[in-house]
């Protein structure tokens, strides 16, 4: 097992088929699968607005963004499979609730401004989380993250541009943007996970270089990045404790409702049941297509050989 | 009964080799190629794609890594730096 530790100590990458501790493998599978599921479920809140987009231009942008998220899910399933798991099995685990996905996607998208706020805040938080993962110790995961991060920048910028446009519109449009910010701000902060004190696996994940920064470090980084963007946009972040702390050179901010995070993770969010049900239906309704494609492939091969 | 796994290789532009970019599932070769285009080249990342079924790949085993690559380890005379040449010899 010493070669595993040597590779980590030298900050090099673990590759498929290397001998690794069982716990490293299972942690990696869980993290990559959970990440893949998040990308796939993450298509739903925004996908809802594709048929309701206000212009052909916005519709094309949103379609491309949601298609990217599907792609992210597939890159990640592909990385998970290098650890010897089966993709169909991962889908089953998502559908029957044995594996989780990001709590953020259990909130509803109530207006078109939500599409902009998701791009700005949710994809923005995802970028904060994901950039350090481009140096994750597991090679296939790190490479998938590099590909994903390249695409995320478009996601965040299209969201912010959408919001700038709405803020330049009517009073009602500005109110929609503020309302969306009010609803998504705290759930976005929760995307970084529980506070460090309640995150027992962080130390081991950092030692294995699966994680590069703690949840609280990343959350702080996100707040510091976002505050000036909110000012420029002309919206108020819904946190009375949010202020610049010159002593720390960073922003102080309030505490997210951790009970809410626990509740949403364990199935009690506003849309948990709906998201999983939709995924289950898509999987089951698509079964005949998958079978027909296989039957077609088999028939064609018979034709070639016979 | 699920779709087989394919490995995907993309040539980013003329003059470069195809490089492995990941894998995907598809019912047959033709569908694998189309899926690879949609999945790995949504932003002009490639001018040519190869797909090959993963079960058709023969790979060296990481367990025998040292023994397998040993034969090239002790042949320093395969490298140009093995040969001392006086500094006043031009262009060599
Ligand atoms: Fe994504
Ligand atoms: Fe995204």
UniProtKB/TrEMBL annotation, chain A:
Q: Does the keyword Cell membrane apply?
A: no
What are the entry keywords?
Oxidoreductase
Give GO terms: molecular function aspect only.
phenylacetyl-CoA 1,2-epoxidase activity
InterPro entries on file: Aromatic_CoA_ox/epox, Ferritin-like, Ferritin-like_SF, PaaA, PaaA_PaaC
Q: Does the record's keyword annotation contain Oxidoreductase?
A: yes
Q: Which domain of life is it from?
A: Bacteria
Coiled coil feature spans: none
Pfam families tied to this protein: PaaA_PaaC
- In the Enzyme Commission scheme, what number(s) does this protein have? 1.14.13.149
SUPFAM superfamilies the record matches: Ferritin-like (SSF47240)
**Name of the featured protein:** 1,2-phenylacetyl-CoA epoxidase subunit A
Lineage, top ranks: Bacteria, Bacillati, Actinomycetota, Actinomycetes, Streptosporangiales
From TrEMBL, chain B:
Q: Which Gene3D superfamilies match?
A: Phenylacetic acid degradation B (3.10.20.520)
Pfam families per UniProt: PaaB
Name of the protein: 1,2-phenylacetyl-CoA epoxidase subunit B
- Give the classification, highest ranks: Bacteria, Bacillati, Actinomycetota, Actinomycetes, Streptosporangiales
